[in-house]
Amino acid sequence: MRAAVIERLGKPLVVQNVPDPECPPDGAILKVGANGICRTDWHLWTDDWAWRGLAIKPPFVLGHEFSGTVEEVGRDVRGWKKGDRVLFPMNPGEGTCEWCRSGNQHVCDSGAQLVPGVSYWGAFAEYVMVRFVDVNLVRLPESISFVDAASMACRYMAAFHGVANQAAVRGGEWVAVHGAGGGMGLSAVQIAAALGANVIAVDVSERGLAAARAVGAAVTLNGTDGNAVEAIRSITKGGAQVSVDALGIAETCCNSVLSLRKLGRHVQLGHTTRKEVGYVPLPIDVILLNELCLFGTFGMQAQRFGTMLAMCEAGRLKPAQVVSETVGLEGITAVLERMGTYDTTGIVVIDSF
Ligand SMILES: [Zn+2]
Ligand SMILES: [Zn+2]
């Protein structure tokens, strides 16, 4: 099969023929329909996450946010067959640990070994192998295209889980989204707006802010003009009920917490970088005095996709609007290079292999 292979970290990917993946008894081989290029790919390609023990060893094939068609299933698989249209959430479980058995396989104890494109070769290729498919695969309705579904396996599902499930955003609430112009940020803006919230989008890029307006932001603020936190507190008369850090750098995380009114809910959607190494100073007394809640969010379990897909089918959510561009395997390197300077808006999806 064709695949875009990392031969050296940080250097251009090389599109070449590699052996097809083999199907394990509990797994499946998917023919990849589309695959989003994620900031996680950039973190791995630049070796930015070695400090957290997440590093890849070349030769390696990235790609963890994909949709496609089942090509082959293992002998133990009961719920799936060749030809099924599916997506595979990027944080799968094996189905038997305490977390899996309580319906939380997205935080499975063995999850870290099961992520395609992170723990083993992923879907910047014609085919990809996935494990424990009876626990993890999601059936894709005919009305949702592979390109629209690709980001649902990572950023779009995480944004939905954070906004709809964790923070339980309700109609009429103010929701501030920091780092709104990236794939995760635009997804959060669109989902919060679809749930009836008034969304304030903050970004340093005018292009990102225009994209946020197009997916439903009521107010946009450029983080480089003065104080975004003061502006949010003034527009909302005391702070937002919910605030989202979609980026994961110190400034967006701290600003998100400071944007909240009393009893507000912060949602952490962005992972930190080599600069923060996992730690961000936060205003602890503000959190204490205002009884703020902090929600971590990491993907979403397969069985919770029903309401999100129903909103897509009804036209209330439009994941296509957060897809900014499609490329082939040869176009991946240029997208990763642009991510290094935060020069991407929305989600770039690979749609030809
Ligand atoms: Zn991703
Ligand atoms: Zn488990």
Topology of this protein?
Blueprint: E1 2-5, E2 14-17, E3 28-37, H1 39-45, E4 65-73, E5 85-87, H2 98-101, E6 127-130, H3 133-136, E7 138-139, H4 146-150, H5 155-166, E8 174-178, H6 183-194, E9 198-203, H7 206-214, E10 219-222, H8 228-235, E11 240-245, H9 250-258, E12 260-268, H10 284-289, E13 293-296, H11 305-313, E14 323-328, H12 332-339, E15 347-352
Helix pairs in contact: 5-6
Q: Describe it for me?
A:
The chain has 353 residues and is α/β, with parallel strands linked by helices. It folds into 2 domains: 2-154 and 300-352, Medium-chain alcohol dehydrogenases, catalytic domain (Quinone Oxidoreductase, Chain A, domain 1); 156-296, NAD(P)-binding Rossmann-like Domain (Rossmann fold). Helices cover 26% and strands 23% of the residues. The protein contains 12 helices and 15 strands. It has helices at 39-45, 98-101, 133-136, 146-150, 155-166, 183-194, 206-214, 228-235, 250-258, 284-289, 305-313, 332-339; strands spanning 2-5, 14-17, 28-37, 65-73, 85-87, 127-130, 138-139, 174-178, 198-203, 219-222, 240-245, 260-268, 293-296, 323-328, 347-352. β11, α9 and β12 (260-268) form a beta-alpha-beta unit. The longest helix is centred in the middle third of the chain and has 12 residues, at 155-166. 54% of the residues are buried. The model has no long low-confidence stretch (mean pLDDT 96). The structure holds zinc ion (2 copies). One zinc ion binds next to α2. One zinc ion (ZN) binds next to loops.
